C-alpha cells in the first residue's frame, strides 16, 4: 500500500495544471514583496532592535499572554496603537492571519450573518469555518449587493447581527473598497463593519493610519492592521471597542492558547508606526514610484486605474503567467506569478508590487523588460 499516493496524485495534478508551488528565496530587484516602505531591512529597525536587546527586551515571550507571556512591550504597543488609530482598544497577534482567524471564529455569534467581499483574504474564510455564524459572499466592491443580501436575510427571518467584511485595499487587484458607502449601510442596519487594512496601513492616510480614516473611532467598526508589510516586521493589530477586546481575551482560542508574540516584535512594530508617522517622505516616495509605474506601464495597456502600489497584470493562463515571470526573473527582476486558487480561475497574473527597495530606474527597466517578455510569451 502506497500511503502517500493521495498526496502524490494531488501534487501531480497541480503540476500538470501549472499550479504546483515551490519555495524560492528572494533574488533580484524587489517587485514581489509587501515591504512597501523598505523597512524590513532598514538601518532604522536594525538599530532599534539592537538597542532594545541591549536594554533587556526579550526576544521570546515565554508563554501565552495569560500565562506569563504578557510583557510591557505588548501593552505599550496596544495602548499606543489604540490612541494612534483613534480606537478604544487594541490587541496584538502573532500575524494578520491569526488575527483574522480569531476574529471571525470568535466574535460573530450563532444567529448572526457574515457578509464578505468575494475577494477577501483566505484567513477570513478559515476563521468563518471555525465560527458559529452563517456566511455569504457578495460581489466585489458592490454596495448594492450588500444592501440586497441584508434585506433578503432579514426578510427570511434573520434577526442576529450582520457583520460586513472587506479589505480596504485588495492585495491581488490593487483596488479600494467603497468604505464610506459600506459604513452607511452598516449604520442603517445596525451592522458591524470589519476592515482589513493589511495593504494600506503605512502607505495611505495621515501618519500612515490607512484608508479607513476616522471610521475606526466608531463602535461598530473593527480594523486589522498588519505589521508584516509596510511596517517591516510581523504581527497583526486589531483595533476595536474595549468590550470586544475583553471578549477576545476570554474567548478567542487562537489568542488564549498561542505563545505570545515576541516582546521584541511588539517593540519594533511600535517603533515602525512612530517612524512612519514622523517620516512622511516614505509615503511620498512610494507615491512617486506608483505614479511613475502608471506612466511606464500605460504604453503596454496593463496599468489599472487605481492609485495604489499594487499592479496586477492579468494574463489568464497559468502557464503563460509562469513563463513571463520566469523571463523577468532571468533578467534580474523578482516578479512572481499568482495563480488559482489564490485568484479566481482564468485570472492568473503577475502581481507587481512597488516598494522603496527599488529605484525609479529599476521601474523603467522593468517596464521595458515586461514588454519584451510579453511579446516572447505571445510568440511562443
Structure overview:
This protein folds into two domains: 26-39 and 280-379, Aspartate Aminotransferase, domain 1 (Alpha-Beta Complex), CATH 3.90.1150.10; 57-277, Aspartate Aminotransferase, domain 2, CATH 3.40.640. Helix 2 (43-54) crosses helix 10. It is globular and about 60 Å long. The protein is of the alpha/beta class. It is 43% helix and 15% strand. The longest helix is centred in the last third of the chain and has 20 residues, at 360-379. The strands form three sheets. Strands 2-8-7-6-5-3-4 form a seven-stranded mixed β-sheet, sandwiched between helices. A three-stranded antiparallel β-sheet has the order 9-12-11. A two-stranded parallel ribbon has the order 1-10.
Short description:
It is built from 13 helices and 12 strands.
Descriptive labels:
single chain; 380 residues; alpha/beta; Aspartate Aminotransferase, domain 1; Aspartate Aminotransferase, domain 2; 2 domains; seven-stranded mixed sheet; three-stranded antiparallel sheet; 15% strand
Q: Can you lay out the helices and strands and say which pair or pack?
A:
Elements: H1 5-16, E1 29-30, H2 43-54, H3 72-85, E2 89-93, H4 96-106, E3 113-117, H5 122-130, E4 134-138, H6 143-155, E5 162-167, H7 179-188, E6 192-196, E7 221-226, E8 236-240, H8 242-251, H9 253-256, H10 263-278, H11 280-298, E9 310-316, H12 318-330, E10 333-334, E11 337-338, E12 348-353, H13 360-379
Parallel strand pairs: 1-10, 3-4, 3-5, 5-6, 6-7
Antiparallel strand pairs: 2-8, 7-8, 9-12, 11-12
Helix pairs in contact: 2-10, 3-10, 4-5, 11-13, 12-13
Count of separate DSSP helical elements: 13
- Give the CATH H-level superfamily of the largest domain: Type I PLP-dependent aspartate aminotransferase-like (Major domain)
What does the average pLDDT come to?
94
CATH architecture of the largest domain: 3-Layer(aba) Sandwich
- Predict the CATH topology of the largest domain: Aspartate Aminotransferase, domain 2
Helix content: 40-55%
Q: Quick one: CATH class of the largest domain?
A: Alpha Beta
Amino acid at each position: 500500500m502506497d500511503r502517500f499516493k493521495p498526496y502524490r496524485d494531488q501534487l501531480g495534478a497541480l503540476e500538470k495544471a501549472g499550479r504546483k508551488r515551490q519555495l524560492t528565496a528572494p533574488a533580484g530587484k524587489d517587485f514581489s514583496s509587501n515591504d512597501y516602505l523598505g523597512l524590513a531591512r532598514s538601518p532604522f529597525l536594525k538599530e532599534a532592535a539592537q538597542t532594545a536587546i541591549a536594554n533587556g527586551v526579550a526576544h521570546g515571550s515565554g508563554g501565552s499572554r495569560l500565562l506569563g507571556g504578557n510583557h510591557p512591550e505588548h501593552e505599550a504597543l496596544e495602548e499606543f496603537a489604540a490612541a494612534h488609530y483613534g480606537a478604544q482598544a487594541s490587541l496584538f497577534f502573532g500575524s494578520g492571519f491569526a488575527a483574522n482567524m480569531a476574529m471571525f471564529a470568535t466574535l460573530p455569534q450563532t444567529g448572526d450573518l457574515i457578509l464578505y467581499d468575494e475577494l477577501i483574504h483566505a484567513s477570513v474564510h478559515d476563521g468563518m469555518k471555525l465560527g458559529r455564524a452563517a456566511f455569504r459572499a457578495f460581489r466585489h466592491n458592490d454596495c448594492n449587493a450588500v444592501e440586497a443580501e441584508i434585506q433578503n436575510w432579514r426578510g427570511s427571518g434573520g434577526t442576529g447581527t450582520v457583520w460586513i467584511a472587506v479589505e480596504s485595499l485588495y492585495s491581488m487587484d490593487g483596488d479600494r473598497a467603497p468604505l464610506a458607502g459600506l459604513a452607511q449601510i452598516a449604520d442603517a442596519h445596525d451592522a458591524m463593519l470589519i476592515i482589513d487594512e493589511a495593504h494600506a496601513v503605512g502607505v495611505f492616510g495621515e501618519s500612515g493610519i490607512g484608508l479607513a480614516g476616522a471610521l475606526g473611532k466608531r463602535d461598530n467598526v473593527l480594523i486589522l492592521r498588519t505589521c508584516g508589510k509596510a511596517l517591516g516586521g510581523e504581527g497583526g493589530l486589531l483595533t476595536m471597542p474595549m468590550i470586544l477586546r475583553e471578549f477576545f481575551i476570554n474567548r478567542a482560542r487562537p489568542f488564549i492558547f498561542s505563545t505570545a508574540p515576541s516582546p521584541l516584535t511588539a517593540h519594533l512594530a511600535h517603533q515602525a508606526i512612530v517612524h512612519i508617522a514622523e517620516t512622511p517622505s516614505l509615503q511620498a516616495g512610494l507615491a512617486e514610484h506608483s505614479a511613475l509605474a502608471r506612466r511606464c506601464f500605460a504604453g503596454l495597456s496593463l496599468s489599472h486605474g487605481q492609485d495604489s502600489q499594487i499592479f496586477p497584470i492579468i494574463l489568464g493562463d497559468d502557464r503563460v503567467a509562469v513563463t513571463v515571470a520566469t523571463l523577468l526573473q532571468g533578467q534580474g527582476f523578482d516578479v512572481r506569478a499568482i495563480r488559482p486558487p489564490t485568484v479566481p480561475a482564468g485570472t492568473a497574473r503577475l502581481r507587481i508590487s512597488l516598494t522603496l527597495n527599488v529605484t525609479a530606474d529599476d521601474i523603467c527597466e522593468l517596464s521595458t523588460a515586461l514588454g519584451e517578455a510579453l511579446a516572447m510569451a505571445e510568440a511562443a
